[in-house]
Amino acid sequence: MSLERFSIIESTLREGEQFVGASFTTAQKAEIARQLDAFGVECIELTSPLASPQSFEDARTIAALDLSTKVLTHTRCRIEDAQRAIDTGVDGVDVVIGTSSMLRRFSHGKEIEEIIDMACQVVSYVLDQGLEVRFSTEDSFRSRREDLFDIYAAVDAIGVNRVGIADTVGVATPRQVYELVGELRERVDCDIEFHGHNDAGCAIANAFEALEAGATHVDTTILGIGERNGITPLGGLIARLYATSPSLVAKYDLPLLRQLDVTVAQMVGVDIPFNNYITGITAFTHKAGIHAKAILNNPETYEILDPQAFGLTRYVSIAHRLTGWNAIKNRAEQLGLVLSDETLKTITGHIKVLADEKPISLDDVDGLLRRWANGHRDTASASESLGAEL
Ligand code: HCA
Ligand code: CU
After folding, report:
1. Is the overall model pTM greater than 0.85, yes or no?
2. 253 and 135 within one domain
């Protein structure tokens, strides 16, 4: 299991650019690259320089930035493409070709033998130029296993740095990923990368299982953006790994995650989903009275992620019918109000009755607490307010 020594290949600038809302300017790409570098991902992957003239220029620009992260570009399995990629000055080339019967039939029309020949030619070409090279098989989980292993073994034998398994259509289950990566781990010496789409909601679990089975590299994008509904999100993978052990992700500057999510969401014109891993608005919000009580005593009761580790704060929601008196007491203390437990229980009862009638706000709760603390002295003057209804 290589959970202790994995690397992230952050592909927001490649797979992420395939998200329908994404069309990054050069300055935006540089901004994303810098933020990912500061966060500490080991590699970033760029769109093929052959995609458009601007893509070539942008790859040159990013490759020339002073970054600690390795800069890789994606390319098709062709010498001309690899040459063009090398011309940009990047550190490595991520080569990919389709191996499923469907892709072979409806996309490039090649037989496995031809694919192996092309793969070996391109891989040795890039290695000869002194760059790192990865070879990956698109739609791996709908490809014949024997075909995959023949291809991987051939490129491994000539010294490829990494082979990639790609769940292009998001069809794989965590168990299938574990099995395939595990078997591959026994057959090749090189590093193993996993790239997983999220069509059926397994992208994070699949990436995690790949690591548990011996993969060394995992592809992510910010917010998971990519083709269709995207791939393993960086934040989601971090959450999964942190939950296993915070030490696994201690090498990253975790508080920078929120800004990355905010930046990319803005650039591609989406909101961060309310239930997003770590950075969603409700990710550290607790509501039910029973939860609130325990959280106030010890946050770990209901939190496997420490919001502080990500520069965030938890929020205990108290203005609703599920509230409890411990949470109301805690709020009174925050406001510096002295109220007996009996009074606080009475106030909590009032809050529940009010919340049954209509939605109430924290201001309403605060108003109530203040009035009770003042012995109802100002109730008359607040005839319009909620507390006056009691
Ligand atoms: C694509 C295909 C790809 C490649 C993955 C890889 C996929 O959209 O170009 O290079 O490993 O999902 O198969 O993103
Ligand atoms: Cu993909």
Report:
1. yes
2. yes
